[in-house]
Design goal:
Elements: H1 3-26, E1 35-37, H2 39-45, E2 49-53, H3 65-76, E3 82-85, H4 89-100, E4 105-109, H5 115-123, E5 127-130, H6 135-149, E6 152-153, H7 160-177, E7 182-186, H8 191-203, E8 208-214, H9 219-226, H10 249-258, E9 261-265, H11 267-281, H12 291-297, E10 307-311, H13 318-331, E11 335-343, H14 348-358, E12 363-369, E13 379-387, H15 391-403, E14 409-410
Parallel strand pairs: 2-10, 3-4, 3-6, 4-5, 7-8, 7-10, 8-9
Antiparallel strand pairs: 1-2, 11-13, 11-14, 12-13
Helix pairs in contact: 1-3, 1-7, 1-8, 1-10, 3-4, 3-7, 4-5, 7-8, 8-10, 11-12, 11-13
The protein binds pyridoxal-5'-phosphate.
Pyridoxal-5'-phosphate binds next to helix 4 and helix 8.
Length: 411
């Protein structure tokens, strides 16, 4: 065996060993989340697909597992406190885990962090420090605080205890649903997939583990091509939990040696997966949590045999959910958006709305723009968004509108 193979094997064995210990720390402090078979996704995949629902986990994501183990061990030895940098699920995971052991926590977030996230993290008992415009600046500040106050820094993924905590998912799944042939896992910095593959290769020998990252930050796909960790440009994504610029040093070694492949999904795939899970399964997930399902519906992954998808988190913000729903409904022809130019006179808009109402369609939004540059004076450009049972109804409405002198088109 080559030296790097020996090292990767040692790491995986160590994560496996620690994960069995991690179970005892997590029990009673985190939820034993359900594993459910999804008939919709099974029929799309052409094989049995089960979902491990970490969106129902305490704090809304799997990110509480690693910190519960890591901080639990540190607390046994007595520590002054812990510090982390995050504007996402790691913040809440660390805050919750620290509070559950009575340990003080400081979370550094960028100044631009959404107010809802700041509030949620404070509600779990953390002291929140807003610092820096981008994440890297918050990270630097967190490391300084660790130094200044003698606190332990909790890394979001490149830490054996964090990976071992994540690996407890596989112990639970094997008790709940037996062994799987394929496991599909969302990938950010790689801590989740490293924990999962290290345990799964022991409990489910022969299993294929496949990673899914966002096209907006394809760090593992690029690093695997290069054979060394590389840093990529990261853009904004609906799957913000998957946006890390580079793999961890440890996670890269484990993914390289034990993960079968890593694929990417784009924003449309993620949105479609979120919509599908919500509409068919009544499961609310965030973009990162939907990545595994996105890989199946986009055919980036062809699941073989009994397949488990880790649905890693459910902390979606409500504005992104609203967009995902509207785009999904529009794709299915259940929300329509039509535009036309009408005389800017009392009663004209009413005439248009009356026709839509006669088809029993509910209006979602109206944009009435009389200052539009391409509209002649005395006219107004009107865009109407409405709910509709199907596309056919939209065409019938457009026909009726034209007949009444309102030439509207689908926008
Ligand atoms: C919901 C969710 N899924 C997946 C990930 C990716 O985990 P990792 O960075 O360990 O690969 C994250 C990371 O924050 C997350 O919040």
């Amino acid at each position: 065996m080559r030296e790097d193979e020996v090292r990767a094997l040692e790491l995986a064995e160590e994560i496996y060993r620690r994960s069995s210990e991690a179970r005892r720390f997590i029990e009673g402090r985190a939820h034993y989340t359900p594993v459910d078979r999804s008939s919709t996704i099974s029929s799309i995949a052409g094989t049995d697909v089960y979902l491990k629902l970490e969106n129902l986990q305490k704090t809304g994501s799997f990110k509480v597992r690693g910190p519960l183990y890591k901080i639990g061990k540190l607390a046994r030895n007595g520590i002054k406190g812990v510090v982390a940098a995050s504007a996402g699920n790691h913040a809440q995971g660390v805050a919750y885990a620290a509070a559950s052991y009575g340990v003080k926590s400081v979370i550094v977030m960028p100044e631009t962090a959404p107010v809802a996230k700041v509030k949620a993290t404070k509600a779990y008992g953390a002291e929140v420090v807003l610092y820096g415009e981008v994440f890297d600046e918050s990270l630097r500040r967190a490391l300084e605080i660790a130094e200044e106050r003698g606190f332990e820094f909790i890394h979001p993924f490149d830490d054996l205890d964090i990976m071992a905590g994540n690996g407890t998912i596989v112990w639970e799944v094997s008790e709940q649903a037996g062994r799987f042939d394929t496991i599909i896992v969302p990938v950010g910095g790689g801590g989740l997939i490293s924990g999962i593959v290290s345990v799964a290769r022991k409990l489910m020998p022969g299993v294929r583990v496949i990673g899914v990252e966002s096209e907006a930050a394809p760090k593992f796909v690029e690093s695997l091509k290069e054979g060394k960790p590389v840093t990529v440009e990261a853009s904004h994504s609906l799957a913000d939990g998957l946006i890390a610029k580079s793999p961890g040093e440890l996670t890269f070694q484990i993914v390289t040696h034990f993960v079968d492949k890593v694929v990417t999904v784009d924003e449309h795939d993620v949105a479609r997966a979120m919509y599908l899970l919500l509409e068919r399964g009544k499961i609310l997930v965030e973009g990162a949590g939907a990545a595994g399902v996105a890989a199946i519906i986009s055919r980036e992954v062809k699941p073989r045999g009994r397949t488990l998808v880790v649905v890693s988190g459910g902390n979606a913000d409500l504005t992104s959910i609203e967009k995902v729903i509207l785009v999904g409904l529009a794709r299915e022809g259940r929300v329509a958006r039509i535009t036309g130019v009408v005389p800017d006179r009392p009663g004209q808009l009413m005439g248009v709305l009356d026709i839509i109402a006669r088809f029993r369609c509910n209006v979602v939004d109206i944009i009435h723009d009389r200052l539009h540059p391409r509209v002649s004076p005395g006219m107004a450009r009107v865009t109407i968004i409405f709910e509709t049972p199907d596309r056919e109804t939209v065409f019938r409405i457009l026909e009726e509108l034209r007949f009444r002198g309102y030439p509207f088109v689908v926008d």
